[in-house]
């Protein structure tokens, strides 16, 4: 038996302290990624294996460059939350915190490196 | 007071002694493919960074990605990405409150695995 009133049980944003914000972000990014994935696979699949000049020419064009940049940012934000979900399922305490911070750092590092590379090629 | 009788709660069956089912295996695969794809992200971003840096570094990255091992990694990544793509669509369908009956969920599991193979083969043919 829980000594909580109905109101107390419904108040606040739950054990996650952020309500369903994370789940909603995963839904939104999943839809965005679902639209971009076929085009992203086509662009990357076509570019990998070509010569250096051809790769530079491909990512100098607006569509492949914008798509690759957008995909990287959204995919890494999606990864960050998915990885945090896995980490909080399998670890606790300081390990969980350290791994979560690591996953967030990795996702931003991948975004920074990828966007820098695309900007340097395209501009 | 809320956790006074916590010890009396029944334990759920432990994962290791639970018979694998299509629904549970496809769910675990969604997690493995999603998190594993970070390796692909590293490879692709490294390759892009090398292309942006110069001819020498591009030659190194390109040699790795187009080697037999690179091909194997990218082929596995393609399957993993398509699998995660289809499993994600399945999640969106479930989130809408549809397809949760056991026989439908199992059919969706088969569709996700088979679909990933079909889309991967199509990808290898097109690009």
From TrEMBL, chain A:
Principal localisation: membrane
Pfam families: Sdh_cyt
Recorded GO CC terms: membrane
Top-rank lineage group of the source organism: Bacteria
NCBIfam families the UniProt entry points to: succ_dehyd_anc (TIGR02968)
Subcellular location(s) of the protein: Membrane
UniProt entry keywords in alphabetical sequence: Electron transport, Heme, Iron, Membrane, Metal-binding, Transmembrane, Transmembrane helix, Transport, Tricarboxylic acid cycle
Coiled-coil stretches: none
Entry membrane topology: Multi-pass membrane protein
Source organism (scientific name): Phaeovulum vinaykumarii
Organism ancestry: Bacteria, Pseudomonadati, Pseudomonadota, Alphaproteobacteria, Rhodobacterales
UniProt name for this protein: Succinate dehydrogenase hydrophobic membrane anchor subunit
Automatic annotation (TrEMBL), chain B:
Keywords: Heme, Iron, Membrane, Metal-binding, Transmembrane, Transmembrane helix
Membrane topology: Multi-pass membrane protein
Cofactor: binding details: The heme is bound between the two transmembrane subunits.
UniProt-recorded Gene Ontology molecular function terms: electron transfer activity; metal ion binding
Cofactor(s) listed: heme
Similarity-based family: Belongs to the cytochrome b560 family.
UniProt name for this protein: Succinate dehydrogenase cytochrome b556 subunit
Organism encoding this protein: Phaeovulum vinaykumarii
